[in-house]
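Question:
Now give any protein.
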Amino acid sequence: MNKVVAFALALGAFVNYSKAQEPVVMTINGKQISKSEFEAVYRKNNGKEVNNTTKSVNEYVDLFSLFKSKVFEAESMGLDTLTSFKNELAGYRRQLAAPYLTDKNTNESLLNEAYERMKTEVRSSHILVRIDETALPKDTLEGWTRIHLIRNAVLGKMPTTAEIANYEKLLKNQSEVSKNLKGKDSSIYKAKLNSVKYLADYYKNATDKFMDIAPRTSDDPSVVDNKGDLSYRTAFDLIYPYETAMYTTKIGDVSQVVRTRFGYHILKVYDKRESRGEVFVSHIMAAFPKNATEQDKTNAKTKIDELYGKLKGGQNFEELARQFSDDKQTGERGGQLQPFKSDGRRPKPFEDASFALKANGDYTEPVMTQYGWHIIKLNEKKGVPAFSEIKNELKTRVSRDPRTQMGRVALIERVKKDNNFKENLKNRDEFTKIMDSTYLKATWSAARAEKLGNKEIFNLGGKSYTQNDFAKFLETQMTFRSPTDVNEIMKGIYKTWVEESIVNFEDTQLEKKYVDFRNLLREYRDGILLFDLTDQKVWSKAVKDTSGLKEFYEKKKNSYLWGERAEVTTYKCLNDKVAKDVRKMLKAGKTEKEIIETINKPSQLNLSVENVTYLKGENKNVDNNWKAGVVEKDIIDEKEKKTFVIVINKVLPKTPKTLAESRGLVTADYQNYLEKEWLDYLKKKYIVTVNKDVIATIK
């Protein structure tokens, strides 16, 4: 993306889809540039309010013509034919196309819907009849019948003898049950049949006509522990169809049957409340084991009461958590837990106490859960943010959620309607003649469809989609499958093929239908070309052309000078006495090595030495004594608490830096030099003829 930002967006490349009769603003080597192309680029790169003076337009003419010359040069070099270029552009196009291949109105509605739902938390319980997404019709019918019988019973209408007998027939034909019965295993058959057969007894013995029946009838394994109770949930907590049923069902009512990827559900709504938001709390815990005795519980209560007393006496919550909390993981953090919502995933007493706290820093009296006793402190509480604050986050969450398929479904229906979609299912069903068990073994061949005559299955926008097309798609979807009805598999794949074909058809129309898409794609295209071209001609060349770089440096080396410098030795002495001894030895002509060995013989802490070459202006102590020799006065360094004796060994005049020392600057200047030469070449190669009369009309 940086390539595009740096080149295409900055320079404003724009595709020429002008009609033949459009005014021509310029020609470049005979290639015409329309007024509409130039004007759109000019306005885009200068904002909506532009300075439409002759000078500003003419200045942009030069910039634009140079930009187009670069694009033409890249094309002449074949950069647009490279596989790497095509792959990169295809990747950009997929990103650009994504927002166009869904229904924008539907997506906006989903955002608003999700936000409004986030303001309310709903408590519901559910009963699930599990059905695989790819289940055969006979299996779906069995599940659908069972969930409806259960729903009726929950509402007080018990199944008749005839209804139970009819269900039993469906059950015996169900794939898994039928297979198990043949193998003399009747456990699943009995469990499912009993869930319907004894509904009247379940209802009669139930206090809560929903939750008490759920453990006897639901396929959700967690129902044994929670009776189907999912506690309080909000948007995005549960799968979208269930979420929708949860919000659209009134308190106390049982929903209609809901289909999700897990199967069929019915749910009862027990309560709705304003969202509690999210809390960030810390806790101190006095734990007792799962099988705690009364003495265990008493000991934990005694401990938590003692800690509560220390808190009331003014002791620090975090320190007490670190020292005494039995939750060692959070204790190391002063008792901090991760922020959480009121979604029933924590013990209800703990959750309720946490959300009941009002002000940051407040803490509860001891609270008991099944895990022990807790003191809970509020660190922060957040409500539902404003829509504008979380809109982007909502977009991301919606895009990753199955509900985003609603936008795709709406798009498909619109494209069908707009493009006169016509379908001939009779020609599709001819595939039953050629589908067999080889498809389940992934050895089936699309060539089998040739005998069908390649008849049209559906037509979209005048484009015919034939039996051969479908056969090829079927072949791409082959995988090893368990024995099942291959024709039902074929029909499911057909639906996918139709949907993908419709979306792909719309994808091919984007350049024609949407000016913004067309223009932005061209900007990306030209941006990539310009990046690759400039990299070849300037950037990489400047780095790789070592001989050219060296030759350039030799010609320009007097432009890369060191300023005046001083080679300095600083003797860092432990105290004034050591400094005095150092000066005596310097006066006697002793070497640095001799001085260090002598001075540090009693202690290695007496003296350290630092050799540095300073530019003028880098060290004020050196600047104040800018001449060779021992600086006359000692320097007291307050930071290191030492006495410095400074020796200026040599003052160096301005001299050229070596290529190694100045490579960064030299390379940048060499790139500028190469670019200037290249631009001069382009201006000579590409002759620009400007139509000043047309330029004058741009307002």
